[in-house]
Amino acid sequence: EQTGKSGYDHYMLKEIHEQPLSLRQCLSGRIDELDGRITVEELDDLSDHETVQFVACGTSYHAALYGAQLLRAAGVAANAYYAHEYATSPAPVSTADLVVGVTQSGETADTLSALREASRRGAETLALTNVVGSTAAREADHVLYIRAGPEIGVAATKTFSSQLIGVNLLTSHLTDRGVKRRRDFVDDLRGIANDVQAVLDESEAAAVVEEFVDSDAFFFLGRGLDYPVALEGALKFKEITYEHAEGFAAGELKHGPLALVTANTPIFAVITGEGEAARKTIGNVKEVEARDAPVVVVTDGVAEAGRYADHVLEIPTTDERLAPLLANVQLQLVAYHMAAHLDREIDKPRNLAKSVTVE
Ligand code: G6P
């Protein structure tokens, strides 16, 4: 078994370290060498769409939330739904709509049912999946493979990063048609694997988490594109450490979660880019510091958020659409190192399955 782990203690850590490779695979042949245009052959016959709905569960839902924001920013009406909630309360769809099932395995029963329901009501469907020939891939009208390679650890890591790239490719495909290369973005996309490698080489997550072993709970904050990362950071943390972790939209803090904040609840704040969102989240960091909570800021440094933190987990600067992916790698390491410290069964957390094939 140790051979399968290539010398790493766990599949999860191996898969975290495989991300530079899996991201290169995801992008391979999809950026034109000459003019830098993003071209996704599989999507050539995808129609134009006025609205996009994402359906997904678990980690894939967080990629869906991120994707919906990307599309909205590019002028497409997009929303993300938990697939199981979609089944109970489906959003109206017509033939003008695209429904995207984000599912690593392509076998999650809730996501498959939501896709089938959307298809029954006339929507065009797309599966964004890792597994070639999976049920989602076979049933959907279109499929975009994220090419992350097999993922053994129950906690999704490299597949999430590749899903984030996958929804970027989809967004470019739907909104950039006829547009020549968007130079800075494409350059940063090409550099993303190296940036992930830099995070892996230089992360101080292992040292930072040691300080917080005896905490009551762990909270993760983010706004805008950093919000799905906060949710994913908390999900990963609770899945493998069994400690209480919650992710919040930073702006929601004052509407309830602030009541939970004490000197014994470390806050991980994800703050990338320099816009209004970053400035506002820095305001939230000050609020939790006033309640004596220890603060770890995961940041590219652009908004100088590190000044307000007890610890900083740095990421390289890149396009603001890609920075959340790098921040998430830091949070994968935070979860992993805490779980390792607590001696948890990292690759097979109790009560969880890699793929849930019942509704
Ligand atoms: C299970 C796994 C999660 C995963 C979710 C959705 O609950 O434990 O890690 O995110 O299913 O899986 P999918 O294959 O649809 O992405």
UniProtKB/TrEMBL annotation:
GO terms for biological process: carbohydrate metabolic process; fructose 6-phosphate metabolic process; protein N-linked glycosylation; UDP-N-acetylglucosamine metabolic process. Catalyzes the first step in hexosamine metabolism, converting fructose-6P into glucosamine-6P using glutamine as a nitrogen source. This is Glutamine--fructose-6-phosphate aminotransferase [isomerizing]. The active site is at K354 (for fru-6p isomerization activity). Keywords: Aminotransferase, Cytoplasm, Glutamine amidotransferase, Repeat, Transferase. It catalyses: D-fructose 6-phosphate + L-glutamine = D-glucosamine 6-phosphate + L-glutamate. One of its GO terms (cellular component) is cytoplasm. It is an enzyme of class 2 (transferase). It comes from the Archaea. Its EC number is 2.6.1.16. It comes from Haloplanus aerogenes. Residues 39-180, 208-349 form the SIS domain. Homodimer. GO terms for molecular function: carbohydrate derivative binding; glutamine-fructose-6-phosphate transaminase (isomerizing) activity. Its main location: cytoplasm. It is found in: Cytoplasm.
